[in-house]
């Protein structure tokens, strides 16, 4: 368990929701690692709450696919498997390609300016080498493109994948060697949208996801190899 795991109280939310949000964020950012056991008593002591909100939070996290119940072991943080990764990214690849194509036609001058600023913000975040800041900047950049489609159903579909995508993004962005490539891909996507070049925009958006998939699978296999050699 990480020492920095703590409840951030919110006077407008019930305690069970605060605990749920705390544990979910810890899983998404890797503070609670794949395969790590979630023991109610231990978590309750760490967070200074009773076991009831912990139990409720674990149940909700299981429904979201972030926690797995293992017979005779209890709750564990769900593993990031190649299959689950490919399933999510396969859908996201198609949605991102559609998003940039629609953005080429529909983005407003104000949104285009905001997207340019988001590219700059991502580069600045990359220089901090702080994965949380980099992921937040990446999410903000892609959200601008999706919102620019002005398609409510598409926005809803992308939002439905956002939690799983955040977890995969975090794994990808932890590898600092990917940052330069990400910056370049963002710039190409921006310029393509600015020039209404749908073909280049869609191809780069798909490449963006393909590179993410390859990098995470490489990490997963490396970690699996290390685990087997112990």
Topology at a glance:
Blueprint: H1 15-28, H2 40-47, H3 51-63, E1 67-70, E2 74-77, H4 82-106, H5 109-128, H6 131-148, H7 152-173, H8 179-194, H9 198-229
Antiparallel strand pairs: 1-2
Helix pairs in contact: 1-3, 4-7, 4-8, 4-9, 5-6, 5-8, 6-7, 7-9, 8-9
Task: Summarize the structure in words.
- The protein has 230 residues and is mostly helical.
- 73% of the residues lie in helices and 3% in strands.
- It has helices at residues 15-28, 40-47, 51-63, 82-106, 109-128, 131-148, 152-173, 179-194, 198-229; strands at 67-70, 74-77.
- It has a two-stranded antiparallel ribbon with strand order 1-2.
- The longest helix has 32 residues, at 198-229.
- The chain is globular.
């Amino acid at each position: 368990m990480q020492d920095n795991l703590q409840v951030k109280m919110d006077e407008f939310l019930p305690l069970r929701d605060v605990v749920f949000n705390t544990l979910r964020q810890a899983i998404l950012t890797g503070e609670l690692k794949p395969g790590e056991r979630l023991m109610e008593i231990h978590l309750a002591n760490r967070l200074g709450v009773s076991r009831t909100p912990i139990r409720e939070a674990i149940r909700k996290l299981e429904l979201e696919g972030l926690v797995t119940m293992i017979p005779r072991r209890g709750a564990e943080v769900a593993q990031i498997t190649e299959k689950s990764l490919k399933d999510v990214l396969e859908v996201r690849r198609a949605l991102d390609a559609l998003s940039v194509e629609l953005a080429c036609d529909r983005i407003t001058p104000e949104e285009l300016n905001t997207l340019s600023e988001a590219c700059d913000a991502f580069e600045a975040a990359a220089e901090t080498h702080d994965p949380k800041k980099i992921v937040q900047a990446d999410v903000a950049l892609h959200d601008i493109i999706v919102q620019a489609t002005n398609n409510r159903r598409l926005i809803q579909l992308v939002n439905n994948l956002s939690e799983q995508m955040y977890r995969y993004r975090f794994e990808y962005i932890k590898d600092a060697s990917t940052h330069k490539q990400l910056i370049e891909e963002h710039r190409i996507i921006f310029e393509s949208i600015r020039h209404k070049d749908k073909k280049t925009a869609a191809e780069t958006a798909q490449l963006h996801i393909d590179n993410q998939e390859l990098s995470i699978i490489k990490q997963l296999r490396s970690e699996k190899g290390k685990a087997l050699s112990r």
